[in-house]
Amino acid sequence: MWQIFFRFLSLGLVSFGGPAAHIGYFRQTFVIELKWLDEKAYGGLVALSQFLPGPGSSQVGFAIGYLRGGLLGGVAAFLGFTLPSFILLLLLAVTSAQWMEYPITTSIIHSLKLLAVVVVADAVWLMFNQFCRNTPSRLVMIISGAIVLLQAAVWLQFVLLIFAALVGSVALSDKSGQMASGTFSDVTSVREPVKLNYFWLGIFALFLSGSVLLLSSQADVHSTGNIQQELIYLFSQFYQVGSMVFGGGHVVLPLLEASVGDGMSSDRFLTGYALAQAVPGPMFALAAFLGAELWGTQPLTGALVATLAIFLPGFLLMLVALRSWHGLSQRPQIIGAITGVNACVVGFLLAALYQPIFTGAVVEPIDMVLVLLGFGLLKIFKPHILILVLLFISFGVISGCT
């Protein structure tokens, strides 16, 4: 267990670049160097992480730990990979109020917000090319994005996901059982039986139904003074978000903003997202910053509850389907439904790119110039994300000193 923990901790300290980069780090370490699993098994885990909602790269890491050391091995992998970003974002949430008053700090944060525009725009570009390859999927994306821009409520996004799944099951699957967008290519002609783990599925469903019922009741738990009820409400907010995020990474942004946006200012939310760009590890660790902000009297407790809640659904679903992804990938309607959902979340992310990211960061012409230069640099030269972080921070320092 310690070996699993420290291997993932070493990666969590240096894993900049988002889910795609994390998956590359995992392959180099656990397939090529340590040989904990072969290429085919690893490819299956990556495909399954795309199939399920949740934090894609963290789900792959959890599955590697699970296959290596059982359930405790999966937990050890999660703790090791997430701990550095959790600690950094918790500290930034707790201390930021003290140093935000300095002009140079404000300038650096503003520069990181501009970097967020660049990174999310790139994510939209890549996901559009991957998931929106035909007319039905593009229509799903446009409709979803337009509706979310007008009304960003979580329940409405949930309805849109169901709508996209229904459209996809009819219009975005073929008779061979292969995904129209090509995400799943390792499909055999003979269907394998689907053997789900119903114990973990029951736990996932129990938490999700409880969260939906609590949040839909619209009870004002904050006015009761009951700490236990408030923590359950916080857990429910982040658990529901974690259950709905297909695509992982930056896709969590619009759902989180819709879920917890009433509890903090849009500027503070975007500040947390900008800071999350500058730390290694999974993007879902943003929950640590938001949990600490929402639970200001006990920030560590808030950060722990929010982080556990947002990661838990994806891990439970990984346990449900870990042994049956081949069987699932051979059902055309299921694959088509996932294709539709992925197109829908591209629309969500496109809407989030405009509001709150673009509108909260680009306020002057020079800001747009920096966004264009950063996006051009990223697409043409493809530098490591850490280089972009340092460049934008350097600009912030220079702006703050002049």
TrEMBL record:
Q: How does it sit in the membrane?
A: Multi-pass membrane protein
Q: Does the keyword Transmembrane apply?
A: yes
Subcellular localization(s) per the UniProt record: Cell membrane
| Gene Ontology terms for molecular function | chromate transmembrane transporter activity
Main localization of the protein described in the UniProt heading:
membrane
InterPro entries for this protein: Chr_Tranpt_l_chain (IPR014047), Chromate_transpt (IPR003370)
Does the record carry Membrane as a key word? Answer: yes
The organism's place on the tree of life at top rank:
Bacteria
| Keywords of this entry | Cell membrane, Membrane, Transmembrane, Transmembrane helix
Q: Which family does it belong to?
A: Belongs to the chromate ion transporter (CHR) (TC 2.A.51) family.
For this entry, the protein name equals Chromate efflux transporter
Can you name the source organism? Shewanella atlantica
- Name of the encoding gene: chrA
